[in-house]
Amino acid sequence: MELTISDWLAFIGAAAWVPQIVSWTYHGLTKPKLTFGASRTLEVGFTSLGPLLNIPCGLSTSRKDALIKSINATVMHDSGRKKEFRLLSVTETVSLVTESRDSHSVYSQRKFATLIKVSTLEVAERTLGMDEEKFEMESRRLFETVQNRYAHFVDPKLENLLAKLIETGEHNSLVSFLKGSFFWEVGGYTIRLRLSIAGVREPSVHTLRFSLNDAEVEALKRNVGKALEYTKYLLEGSMGKDPSLRWHWINPPVVSELRT
Q: Across the chain, what does the average pLDDT equal?
């Protein structure tokens, strides 16, 4: 069977698509490989938002750009007590201004985002702000219960409404919850960080270790009283005086980073 010129032209045209098809297939089957590197220190805190953990890190990817769709962490004390944390915010450095030979200003931007895009072209330096997964929902429920109780007391003839409210069971439940949510104690902690990437079945898992001493825990405990003070301010509404609180933060070193 002899091939005509039209047949040859058809073959040539089809062959021209081969590199493009190979490229599509390669990019379709290739999965991003994420690299995570933690900073030398973490930031541990407790505020009216509950226990908080800030993890400065560097993120890079090879083979393909990566889209991190969720970040979760299990934080466990050596005693076995543990809590689940989730991504609350992402802070990134947007500019570095040199004011003089020995003076520099760093400008950062904090975003309450759930997605992080990581490019193959650069290392993304981010601070992952994480809060306890269940704290927000439960604290909101208890606070609304107290607010409803407060509305029941609103009467121009009643004096010292807040003092009466503090004596209620609803307010006591809120106080007990805030105090019981304090998670930091003396000893070592293990963070099992899970970064879920779009298009990749298994998450990228990294394990970090840090520890807290007596002085650091005592400093963090003072934030519980500040959280209660802030709650009181919210209950007083426009009549309350803004407490302008300064929270205590601790920056423990990362003593090890285990690959899993």
A: 80
Rounded to 10°, the helix 214-236/169-180 angle is: 150
Q: Identify the residue with better confidence: 190 or 241.
A: 190
Closest CA to 190 of 206, 204, 209: 209
CATH of the domain at 151: 2.60.40.10
Residue 127 and residue 87: Cα distance in Å, rounded? 10
Do residues 258 and 207 make contact, with C-beta atoms less than 8 angstroms apart? Answer: yes
Residue 25, pLDDT score: 43
Residue 6: inside a domain:
no
Distance of CA 132 to the CA centre of its chain: 9
CB 106 within 8 A of CB 125: no
In a domain, 39, yes or no: yes
Paired residues of 243 in beta bridges: none
CB 241 within 8 A of CB 233: yes
pLDDT in tens, 13-51: 555 554 554 444 444 446 788 888 888 999 999 999 999
